[in-house]
Amino acid sequence: MATVLxxxxxxxxxxxxxxxxxxxxxxxxxxxxxLNVAAGAAPGGASLVGLTRDxxxxxxxxxxxxxxxxxMRVAQLWHWIYFxxxxxFAEMTNVGxxxxxxxxxxxxxxxxxxxxxxxSKDGTRKWLIRMPSTGPLDKGAEIECxxxxxxxxxxxxxxxxxxxxxxxxxxxxxxxxxxxNLTSAEIVAQLIVARDSIGDWPDAxxxxxxxxxxxxxxxxxxxxxxxxxxxLYNIGDVIAAIDVMSDGEGxxxxxxxxxxxxxxxxxxxxxxxxxxxxxxxxxLHAVRDELRDELVPINRKYDIKQLLDACxxxxxxxxxxxxxFEYVMLKGVNDSDADARELVRLLKGIPAKIxxxxxxxxxxxxxxxxxxxxxxxxxxxxxxxxxASPVRTPRGRDILAACGQLKSETEKLRARARMMAEQGxxxxxxxxxxxxx
Length: 437
Ligand code: SAH
Ligand code: SF4
Description:
The chain is of the alpha/beta class. It is 30% helix and 13% strand.
């Protein structure tokens, strides 16, 4: 059973206790039980943006649209919201004036608030997004979302939770106090915010000087669930969000270009594969249970053998749909030649890619990133064994758009930015995953 430090099930605004170093040392795996806010539009906000087809249908029925019209009306709204990116009901010219007026009276097409947008010299963008308040005590949860443009693709790294209940010892997000699940609408809204900002709608253009893929394709072509949170602890809403994002009449992202990263929530992996049919990434980071217990404490619940068995059974696994194994390079901890050889041995028989991630330090972190020569040597052993082993190239250094460093409180962000700038520490964040077409 998970160790639960705080029960805030009934009140998503409750602030669970922080995980102190002592708590980590005592071996806590999780901080809180699962927290959900009501699905769909946030109370008070009542925006239709991000809703699933069923939620849209309910919203229309609630303002008196007759049952026989619902399917057609949902299709119309779907097109305007998700294909065209409409921000005003007045744009919906094929919807009758009377219905448009009723819609405008009851609902909005508001996006969550963009608190800040930072653009790196290399074109990486990071948004701090504040979700609408869920109640009188809630100022609105803040999450971060990162866009990484490349020549032939644009990848959006989205969050699935505010904070994370897990406590991986090298991850900054794991120290965040407030933890709640994002609704599917809040997950989808991250993509909408990104597309608004980079002009990725049929009638829009990118802002002056913006860096976007030059291959004539979509500006956001890939999604990775590698922001804040453990997606498989919010699997229902993550799957619902993926359904909206990949819907052929709206946002039309290919499921093969959506990658869900998990720390190893074994019991939910089959469901992800069979229902969402996306690419899978596993945060492995260690090849021995003893070390993985410490780095990725969920390993105490589901050990390496159970995790790799679940990988072998992942629906749709093939050479064309390989699993990505993420491996953070920690100096003197998991980066020896023996570790590399054991990694190769463990993954034998699993169609896999290995993604070596230089460790991103954060204030108070107890690890250092492996030296570059060590990373190269490790990568070479893996490569010689027949695996692609890209090392994530640093991106967005100047705006701290780093994987595992996301932590939403604005003040902390500023403090960290200052500290990092002073120390000359950069950030990385190429999430070049998804298919390789
Ligand atoms: N919770 C999920 C997805 C979010 S974390 C998971 O753990 O897979 C996304 C990736 O960033 C994971 O592989 C995670 O292990 C890695 N990561 C976390 N902290 C990091 C850090 N400080 N430096 C580099 N990578 C980190
Ligand atoms: Fe949570 Fe993933 Fe960070 Fe672990 S690495 S604390 S699972 S976000």
